[in-house]
UniProtKB/TrEMBL annotation:
Domain 3'-5' exonuclease, residue spans: 48-256
InterPro entries in the cross-refs: 3'-5'_exonuclease_dom, RNaseH-like_sf, RNaseH_sf
Keyword vocabulary terms for this entry: Coiled coil
Source taxon at top rank: Eukaryota
Pfam families for this protein: DNA_pol_A_exo1
Gene3D superfamilies associated with the record: Ribonuclease H-like superfamily/Ribonuclease H
Origin species: Mycena rosella
Protein name as annotated: Ribonuclease H-like domain-containing protein
Any one Gene Ontology molecular-function term assigned to this protein's record: 3'-5' exonuclease activity
Length: 368
C-alpha cells in the first residue's frame, strides 16, 4: 500500500503551522474559528458551510494518514442518518492536533465530494476504530467506499496474540463473559476458540494503558443517546466529543505503531471488515449483524471450500462451523451466530422472568 508516492517525507504540522496556512489561504476567517475552538484538550474547526470546505482541504493536505470517525443517529443502520464526519492528521502532541468536523446534514453530497475524494483515495491511509458502521453510512447514504484503511479494533484483536493470549486460552474465553452465558461457554469451550469479543475504544485505551487525562475520558462518556446527533444545531459539547474521539483514535494508533501491532496484513483485513454491510445495510433490530463479536473469516482469507451460514448468510470455511453444523443441509449456523442465538435465548429468559415477576407483583392491581 502506497501512502506517500513520490512526495517528500511528511512533516508533522504543528497547530501554529495549521493556523498560518489557514490565515494565508482563507483570509484569516477559518483560522479565527480554530483559535476560538481551542480549549487545551481539543482544537477543532466546525464546517457547516460550503465556502469553508476549501479550508478543510488546506488543513488536511499533504498528510499520508487521516484519522476518521463518524457520528449519527444509530450510525450505519437502515433508515438512519450520518450527521458528522470527523477528520484529523498526525500531530506531535495531542494538544497540537487540529480536528475538522464536517456537518453532513448541512452540506449535500455534491458539496462533500472533495472530502469523499480523500476517503476514496488509495494513496491516503485512513485510520478508524470500528469502521463498519462508518462505512455502512457513507456507502448507503452517499455511495462512498473508503479505500486504504486500518481499523484499530482489528489491530487490538491481533495484538492479543502478540501479548501471549492464545485461542482457547482462559484469557480469550474469559473475555466472552458476561456477554455470553458463562455456563454455556465453559461447558463447550472448544466451540468458542475462534469467537473473539470486540473491545470498544475506551476499553482498548484502558487495556493498552494509553495515558489520558481525566477530561478526555469524561468527554468519551458524554453522549450515550445517539439520537442527539440529529438534533441541530449541534452543541459545543457535541463538537468537543467528536474532536476528542479523533484525538483518542490518534493516541491509540501511535501506541499500536510503537508496539509493532500494525502489520502488512491489517489493511486488507480492515477492508474485509468495514465493507461487510455494503451489500445490505443492517436493520435496527438485526442482532446477527449488530453484535460485539468479531465476524469469522475476517483475519483469515477464505481459501478452502465454503458453505453458507443460514443466519448471517456469509460463505464461510469449515473451521467456522461445528462439525454437526457443517454437515447439516439447512439450519447451518456459524460459530458466531450460534453464540448470538445463545445470548438472545438468555436475554429472552431474563425478560420473561422480569415480566412474570411484574405480573405477580401487580396481580391484584394494588402494587402490593
Amino acid at each position: 500500500m502506497s501512502t506517500t508516492g513520490s512526495s517528500p517525507p511528511f512533516r508533522f504540522k504543528s497547530l501554529s503551522d495549521t493556523v498560518a496556512e489557514l490565515e494565508e489561504e482563507t483570509s484569516g476567517e477559518i483560522a479565527k474559528l480554530l483559535k476560538s475552538n481551542s480549549d487545551g484538550i481539543t482544537n477543532f474547526i466546525f464546517c457547516d458551510k460550503a465556502e469553508h470546505l476549501p479550508a478543510v482541504i488546506v488543513g488536511l493536505k499533504g498528510s499520508p494518514t487521516l484519522f476518521l470517525d463518524c457520528e449519527g443517529s444509530r450510525l450505519g443502520i437502515k433508515t438512519r442518518r450520518l450527521s458528522l464526519i470527523s477528520l484529523g492528521i498526525p500531530a506531535p502532541t495531542p494538544q497540537k492536533q487540529c480536528v475538522y468536523l464536517i456537518d453532513t446534514l448541512a452540506l449535500g453530497t455534491p458539496e462533500l465530494r472533495p472530502i469523499f475524494d480523500l476517503l476514496e483515495s488509495s494513496d491516503i491511509q485512513k485510520v478508524v476504530f470500528d469502521g463498519q458502521m462508518d462505512q455502512s453510512a457513507l456507502f448507503h447514504e452517499h455511495n462512498v467506499t473508503i479505500q486504504s484503511v486500518v481499523d484499530l479494533q482489528l489491530a487490538d484483536i491481533k495484538s492479543r496474540r502478540l501479548r501471549g493470549e492464545r485461542e482457547g486460552s482462559p484469557e480469550q474465553i474469559g473475555r466472552l463473559w458476561p456477554y455470553l452465558p458463562r455456563n454455556k461457554v465453559a461447558s463447550k469451550a472448544s466451540l468458542y476458540e475462534k469467537v473473539h469479543k470486540l473491545a470498544g475504544l475506551g476499553q482498548a485505551l484502558e487495556e493498552h494503558e494509553v495515558e489520558l487525562n481525566e477530561q478526555q475520558m469524561e468527554r468519551k462518556s458524554l453522549f450515550s443517546d445517539q439520537q442527539r446527533w440529529i438534533e441541530h444545531p449541534l452543541s459545543r459539547l457535541h463538537l468537543q466529543y467528536a474532536a476528542n474521539d479523533i484525538n483518542l483514535i490518534s493516541r491509540l494508533w501511535g501506541h499500536f505503531v510503537d508496539a509493532g501491532y500494525i502489520d502488512g496484513q491489517l489493511p486488507e483485513q480492515s477492508l474485509r471488515y468495514i465493507r461487510m454491510w455494503n451489500n445490505a445495510q443492517p436493520d435496527d433490530d438485526d442482532v446477527y449483524k449488530r453484535h460485539a463479536l468479531l465476524p469469522l473469516a475476517i483475519l483469515d482469507a477464505v481459501t478452502s471450500r465454503t458453505k453458507e451460514c443460514t443466519v448471517c448468510q456469509r460463505l464461510l470455511p469449515e473451521s467456522s462451523f461445528s462439525k454437526t453444523a457443517w454437515d447439516k443441509p439447512k439450519d447451518r449456523k456459524c460459530l458466531v451466530c450460534r453464540a448470538i442465538v445463545i445470548r438472545v435465548q438468555r436475554e429472552n429468559q431474563i425478560q420473561d422472568a422480569i415480566e412474570r415477576e411484574g405480573d405477580y407483583y401487580d396481580s391484584d392491581g394494588s402494587g402490593f
